[in-house]
Amino acid sequence: MAEAFACRVEDLLDLQDRRALPEADLRLLTRRTPTAEPPTAPTPPPPVVTAPEASGTDLVRLAADESATWAQWAEASNVGDIALEQLLAETRALACDYLTSDPVALFVRTRVLRDRVFGLLEGHQYPRQSADLYVAAGYLCGLLAWMSSDLGQLRDAETQGRTAWLCAELAGHNDLRAWVLSTRSKVAFWDKRLRDAVNFARRGAAYHTSGTVAVLLACQEADAWSELGAQDEALAALARADDARAVMSGEDTIGGIFACQPARQENYAAAVQLRLGRPADALRSANNALALLTVQPVRAYGTEAQIHISQAAAHLANGEAEGALEALTPVLALPPDHRLAPVTRRLGELGSGVGRPQAGGAAAIGLRQAIEEFCVDSAPQHLALSPGNGSA
Predict the structure, then answer these.
(1) Above 60 in pLDDT, residue 288?
(2) Do residues 372 and 354 touch, judged by C-beta distance below 8 A?
């Protein structure tokens, strides 16, 4: 297996595997003979040294031998096309699983795969294979950035985003560039760097891309403009999202979190309309989004939760606290590990508006209490309080 995946035998075992192994097996693993080692990357050829005494035909023959020795090194590779295809397939699976699975467990799996790709890049391969590895590394770092942001770790998310951008540049891959800038726009938005969020989204939209990334970038730009109170700019960006979907070509390379399905687009539209003071339009977009979710093969729990929050906010804007509480019922039922930072942030913002006079009554009191309890028991809180994070 180690040979097939071009990694060390130790890399096939995680921490739980090691804990389960008997001590004798662990010693055998660490002291295995050199023949059990997976193949390593070819070593660079020895330096070319021309013998001083060579001359005439011997000099010509020596130069030919030197070129042949270098060619043998140059055509060797530590990764094959099948292995590259497998890496991309695993990246797709992670991006898709993230929509429905525990984010911390997915983070661990993504980190392991990223390290495998980094290890391969430290070896030797054809330039086209290096480019493919940089693409895989860029998407994986982008996925780690998205996850870090959802877990409330915005500084770490920005670091991952910068590394992802380096990989996109080294690969010269426009779709990856656009998705990385989308990820960085998302991180900047939740970090309240709204001008940066707009600029990242606009930079991403300048690339010629395939798939749905242009739709998401326009939605993210509208999101940031609406938070800044720029109504005309926000509505224009929403219109560009519709235009981008109309002229969209090709499929998303990765999919999952790196895709913008129609329900996700409507979710952004609902949030933008709410910030612009248009609750009726927001409720219409939220209802459309929920209807679209029913026909999607995968229902992202984070997106679905935010749609219900938009519904609740629209009801609350109309003084309908009971309607808001009913809309939030599926959100409040989320298990703590699925309560990501964007969801708790938006719920917190919603809770701050519950105290308004038009939202009074017993329903409002119950709603405010439910929101407070939800936000305390969330994935970012669990991560902050886990061992090794400086909190007891």
Answers:
(1) yes
(2) no
